[in-house]
Write a structure and sequence with these properties.
The protein is of the alpha/beta class and 285 residues long. The chain has ten helices and eight strands. Strand 1, helix 1 and strand 2 form a beta-alpha-beta unit.
């Protein structure tokens, strides 16, 4: 089985619609794909309706969190999307994304970059607006050559010249909310140092004690040393180890299935989840 547990669609900052995402996943030889858009579940219905036969969909979300002033992302799988407390927190985070993007645009304008809200809104195309949309605008304007090049201290990285904070959930609270909604929690790309400061291992140990289920180890932003270190940490803390592409369509230079999760780990995730179940494809529309 080939299992990719971290993918984005146009419901947040990917370039594939949810329907396109599942079709591309099937065409690329995946058996299981997770839809984990940022702080939203709006892509579920479209993805399920288009799900090809032979492909299983894991519903999820990538939750924006912050601990000790460090931004981190928590992958939540197979939770009840209508559970009121988790839904309210996701909406709070998502609703803060527009004023945050507008504030980043104002900072960029002050730096002499003629980006506009209308441009970013067009790029987001109704998705949950985020830094990648602003970064894409910088690429369009020729300020940086790629989206990744916008995530530096010069521009949009944490603490960068045009960075603006947004509401982010305390990860201990996020774990509690996800667990209460029947979901499973995995720390996304915990050693992605090029994105900014990373959460120390001592804090990850505390998150494990609070109910964190796993850490994403095999990821494009982790080099071999980081993966070895994270595997050892996962073993010490009895955490599941996942691998995922973090696919964003054409917005990032990584393909679906570039990194995958072991079937036994996937099976354990589905066994632990009580809020929702993987959806088997029946042919789509």
């Amino acid at each position: 089985m080939r299992i990719d547990l971290h993918c984005h669609s146009t419901a947040s900052d990917g370039t594939d619609t949810p329907a396109e995402l599942v079709r591309h996943a099937a065409a690329g030889g995946l058996d299981v794909v997770a839809l984990t858009d940022h702080d939203t579940t709006r892509g579920y219905a479209e993805a399920i309706a288009a799900l090809p036969e032979g492909l299983t969909l894991v519903t999820g979300a990538e939750l924006s969190c912050r601990v000790d002033g460090i931004s981190m992302h928590l992958l939540a799988y197979l939770f009840d999307p209508e559970e009121p407390a988790l839904l309210a927190e996701r909406e709070l985070v998502r609703d803060d994304r527009v004023p945050r993007a507008q504030a980043m645009i104002a900072k960029l304008n002050a730096l002499g970059v003629p980006v506009t809200w209308e441009q970013v809104e067009r790029i987001a195309a109704g998705g949950s607006v985020g830094r990648p949309h602003v970064a894409t605008a910088l690429v369009e304007l020729g300020v940086v050559p790629t989206v990744s090049d916008a995530f530096t201290e010069d521009w949009l990285a944490d603490g960068g010249r045009a960075y603006v904070e947004k509401h982010e959930t305390d990860p201990f609270e996020a774990i509690r909310l996800v667990k209460s909604a029947g979901g499973v929690c995995v720390f996304a790309h915990p050693a992605a140092a090029k994105r900014g400061r990373t959460v120390p291992e001592s804090r990850i140990a505390e998150l494990a004690e609070a109910g964190l289920d796993g850490i994403e180890v095999d990821h494009m932003d982790h080099d071999a040393d980081a993966r070895d270190r994270l595997r050892a940490l996962a073993k010490d803390l009895d955490l599941l180890v996942t691998g995922s592409s973090d696919y964003h369509g054409s917005r990032k230079a990584v393909s679906l299935g570039a990194y995958t999760t072991d079937p036994e780990v996937y099976g354990e995730i589905t066994r632990r989840a009580t809020g929702a179940f993987p959806v088997p494809g029946t042919g789509g529309i």
